[in-house]
UniProtKB/TrEMBL annotation:
GO terms for biological process: enzyme-directed rRNA pseudouridine synthesis. InterPro entries: PsdUridine_synth_cat_dom_sf, PsdUridine_synth_RsuA/RluA, RluA_PseudoU_synthase. Signal peptide: none annotated. Pfam families: PseudoU_synth_2. The keyword Mitochondrion applies. Coiled coil: none annotated. This is Pseudouridine synthase family protein. Belongs to the pseudouridine synthase RluA family. It is found in: Mitochondrion. One of its GO terms (molecular function) is RNA binding. It comes from Artemisia annua. Residues 111-281 form the Pseudouridine synthase RsuA/RluA-like domain. SUPFAM superfamilies: Pseudouridine synthase (SSF55120).
Length: 392
């Protein structure tokens, strides 16, 4: 392990402490947390509960949600020293700028809603040259001095509705709307609660659930592999011995096919990482088409059926080049290696712009009297083609 410069946060929690860093370094530290490249050494006499049973000066990987105490030391990779003092300007062609503007579904004084294309990363990371977060900060400001800010995320290979806050205040309020919660209530209590945020995803899965609709309630935990270089989310069997977060997803069958594929509508009531993908693969036993991380074994068998039964129905399309190197033409079930078929199609959320105009609100504001905004994003080309194939 290589250790670089040390940084001691001036506040108690890491997620708040790095807000004092310059903008470029703040983004970098956030990225390092996601990649599990940040480590902590607990100081003498200030151990957190997690570290009580560990060696006093042991250096451990740490996440942005872990608690800190004054005196703890944070280690960043030595590569941070090589970070340029001035960030290169993100330059796009006229065609790429038009492409970004065409993604917008809605815009007001508080939010921008876009239809994220599959294959475009939401945030930066190793090997990612341009992300939506960076591009929006440069080209989707419009007449605002502040850059729009992410308030939730979508996986790189998924698509659909993505919301950005146009100001620091609106982003803070939206963060509270999208914030993940660990529900202690029963499923019945949870369903009876009024939800100001509603999300409906469409997914094409291999197989069919036993029941046409239902509620999945299964805790999810993280398994770190390859010495911290990768991770996988899985359903936790014993919550008393394994760290986990409760995850709840509603589902219903939209349509079934004689080819053994099923269209599902899924509504996550919590916001865990890879929640829908894991619930489909491990709980329903129906992994999402194109999800090779959680359904590789199923895909190996299913591909043999696909090539003989479906591929002949579809004419080869023209694969036009798209901005940012995206291939938006291929990836349907007619292709040998289909892309992920998961799309955030519908969303309902509070009209934050109206709320901000009416009163000064905080992150715990009650949106009960505020009207809602409803959005719907068309399917990406590969999912629309799969839909047409199975309906023909």
């Amino acid at each position: 392990m290589r250790e670089g410069e040390m940084w001691t946060p001036p506040r108690q929690r890491l997620s708040v402490g790095y807000e004092v860093l310059p903008g470029d370094y703040k983004s970098l530290v956030q990225k390092l947390f996601r990649l599990r490249q940040v480590r902590r050494k607990t100081s003498e006499g200030s151990k957190s509960d997690i570290d009580v049973q560990t060696t006093e000066k042991q250096v451990k990987r740490v996440s942005a949600k872990d608690s800190m105490r004054f005196g703890d030391t944070i280690y960043l990779p030595i590569t941070v020293q090589a970070m340029p003092t001035e960030k290169a300007e993100c330059l796009c062609s006229e065609g790429e700028i038009k492409f970004l503007h065409d993604l917008e579904l809605y815009k007001d004084s508080a939010i921008i809603v876009i239809n994220k294309p599959p294959g475009m990363p939401v945030q930066g990371g190793i090997g990612i040259k341009r992300s939506l977060d960076e591009l929006a900060g440069t080209y989707l400001r419009h007449d605002f001095s502040e850059p729009p800010r992410l308030v939730h995320r979508l996986d790189r290979d998924s698509s659909g509705i993505l919301v950005l806050g146009r100001t620091q205040l609106s982003a803070t309020v939206l963060h509270s709307v999208f914030r993940e919660k660990t529900f202690g209530a029963s499923n019945i209590d949870l369903k009876s609660e009024k939800r100001f945020l509603q999300r409906k995803y469409w997914a094409l899965v291999i197989g069919s659930p036993r029941r046409p609709q239902g509620l999945i309630s299964a805790p999810l935990g993280k398994v770190v592999m390859d010495d911290g270089r990768s991770e996988r989310i899985t359903v936790v069997e014993n919550v008393s011995t394994t760290p986990s977060q409760h995850a709840i997803t509603e589902y219903r069958v939209l349509d079934s096919s004689i080819h053994g594929l099923t269209w599902l509508e899924l509504s996550p009531l919590t916001g865990r990482k890879h929640q829908i993908r894991v619930h489909c693969a491990e709980v329903l036993g129906t992994p999402i088409v194109g999800d090779y991380k959680y359904g590789w074994q199923t895909h190996k068998k299913w591909n043999q059926i696909l090539s003989s039964n479906l591929e002949e129905k579809v004419e080869a399309g023209n694969k036009n080049s798209h901005p940012f190197g995206l291939d938006l033409e291929s990836g349907s079930i007619a292709d040998k290696q289909p892309n992920l078929h998961l799309h955030c199609k519908k969303m309902v959320l509070p009209d934050v712009s109206s709320a901000l105009k009416q009163a000064h609100i905080s992150s715990d504001y009650d949106f009960g009297d505020i009207k809602s905004l409803k959005f719907e994003a068309p399917l990406p080309a590969h999912m629309q083609r799969s839909w047409d194939i199975l309906r023909s």
